[in-house]
Design a protein that fits this description.
alpha+beta, Arc Repressor Mutant, subunit A, 3-stranded antiparallel sheet, two-stranded antiparallel ribbon, DUF2087, DUF2087 domain-containing protein
Length: 169
């Protein structure tokens, strides 16, 4: 996975985290420099762990803080990424997919890029979580979901309740 794909994937997860009210509130507490409660709820613990896994927050001997290195790397990557309009990037304007390629090979590459940005390893996402992440790329999330499943890039649970990585590369 390229640095640009990794960066895009992180920011898709950041955007999804910002949509979550409890995660957003917890992030605000940390960014404001306020003290976290001594006894964190399970939800707060889970939210902090998610922010840390995404890389936006870090926990050290001084407590929780914003990961400025991630911001610097992302800005540098975005600057380098903006100049590159070859390959699959010609189908995107920033992070937004403006055209789904007609050629099957190009379409598959675009879908792999999107898949790698929205889900990782052993993650299993509910449909609404997947939709939040796909919406960063295109407003028609049902279309993207369908293509990802049709290309075996995502596997849908038999009851349709969740999605996980597929076997196709």
């Amino acid at each position: 996975m390229s640095d640009a794909q990794k960066s895009t994937g992180q920011w898709v997860q950041v955007a999804a985290g910002l949509k979550n009210a409890s995660m957003r509130q917890l992030l605000g507490v940390v960014l404001a420099g306020d003290s976290l409660p001594e006894e964190l709820s399970k939800t707060q613990q889970k939210d902090l762990a998610r922010w840390e896994k995404i890389g936006l927050l870090r926990n050290d001997e001084h407590g929780w803080s914003l990961n400025h290195q991630l911001l610097d790397q992302t800005l540098a990557s975005a600057s380098a990424h903006k100049a590159d309009r070859s390959g699959i990037q010609r189908f995107f304007t920033g992070a937004r997919l403006h055209t789904l390629p007609a050629k099957p090979g190009d379409r598959h590459e675009v879908l792999v890029y999107i898949r790698d940005a929205v889900i990782s390893g052993d993650e299993q996402l509910r449909e609404e979580q997947l939709n939040e992440r796909l919406r960063v790329f295109h407003p028609d999330v049902a279309l993207l979901r369908r293509y990802l499943v049709d290309h075996s890039l995502l596997l849908r649970a038999t009851d349709g309740s969740s999605y996980r990585l597929g076997s196709a590369a």
